[in-house]
Amino acid sequence: MVRHSPRPLSSEVCEPEARDTPLFYNLTVPSPLLVFRKYGPGLLFVSAVTYLGFQIHWKFEAVSPLVASLVSGVLIGNIISIPGSFAPGQRFAAKKILRFGIVLLGTQLAAEQIIELGGREILVVLVVVATTFSGTVWLGPRLGVSKSLSLLIATGFSICGASAIAAVDGVVDADEEEVAYAIALVTLCGSLAIAVLPLLRDVVGLSDPHLFGAWVGASVHDVAQVIATSSTAGNDAVHSATVVKLSRVLLLAPLIGVISVWIQRPSAGITPRFPGRKAPLVPMFVVGFIVMVTFRTIGLIPDDWLTPLKKIEQWALAAALVGLGSEVKLRDLIKVGGRPLLLALTSWACIGTVSLLGVKYFA
């Protein structure tokens, strides 16, 4: 009787790693422990610095929690040596948590806020945003500012400051130093607006609180800065400023969609966040933003949810800026030079002038 040797088993069966590894790992789903070991240290660090940023905001209400968190992250990242094990958590905050915060930003907006404006006011907002954005993007390279930094400054000044800059960083592969510089510039000019615009109110002939509020809402960058500036003219000015400002914020989604498609063109001279991939018409986090605006508009988000959601959104965006800022080195920031400051001041003058003319003579 002839005995045949047994057939060798395939390597898939014989390899101990393949036989002993649970299906849980074969599906490339990491265990909670591995996830925590990778991201936990950095996220705990980001959470602690974010809390510090909010402590500063609670003590000095004029200071935005986003700006306080960013500055805290930058300073701590340059004063102490952050362990390399923190890096995955820092980057997770700077990218994933950022997008979550942008989605939640949509819960604060509803279509009726646009409808509340008249047709002329809507047209003024569109012209202000388009002129400021395109003018800044065009002028930046001619002043010697990189195209990516010009794009960040243009978006921050034309839409909603730090939040818009962070959103653009989700689709553009900009340096951390450029993002931090753009946020610093938009914060500087927005802070100057709090002092300068009320002084110019009577000079430019905007004694009417509604008109002054509309000018502030169309020209000042951060929502908190808009409220602080317009409050000098009373509640009517604050209401007008807030409505106009939120109409600018609603333009964030279509603008990001346009940017994400435009930067795929070689002639744009800007590196996409994910080069080589076919870009969606609108990034998924912007789709989420639009969905939240829709839910708010049709009443699926109750009014009593807005305050808690706003707090979560602020914490998420602040944490994202900590993750970003803590990887910024001041020596690299200084190398950027003074030309971006000139671009920012020009962009600020542009949005202030165009919005003033629109509000005073057209709206």
Description of the structure:
With 363 residues, this protein is mostly helical. It has one domain (39-361). The protein has 19 helices and no strands. It has helices at 11-14, 16-20, 23-26, 32-59, 65-79, 87-105, 112-115, 119-142, 147-158, 162-169, 176-200, 209-219, 223-230, 235-249, 252-262, 284-297, 306-325, 330-335, 339-361. It starts with 10 loop residues before the first helix and ends with a helix. The model is unreliable at 1-27 (pLDDT under 50).
List the keywords.
363 residues, disordered N terminus, mainly alpha, 71% helix, 19 helices
Compile the SSE list and pairings:
Layout: H1 11-14, H2 16-20, H3 23-26, H4 32-59, H5 65-79, H6 87-105, H7 112-115, H8 119-142, H9 147-158, H10 162-169, H11 176-200, H12 209-219, H13 223-230, H14 235-249, H15 252-262, H16 284-297, H17 306-325, H18 330-335, H19 339-361
Helix pairs in contact: 4-5, 4-6, 4-17, 5-17, 6-10, 6-16, 6-17, 8-9, 8-19, 9-10, 9-11, 9-19, 10-11, 11-13, 11-19, 12-13, 12-14, 12-19, 13-14, 15-16
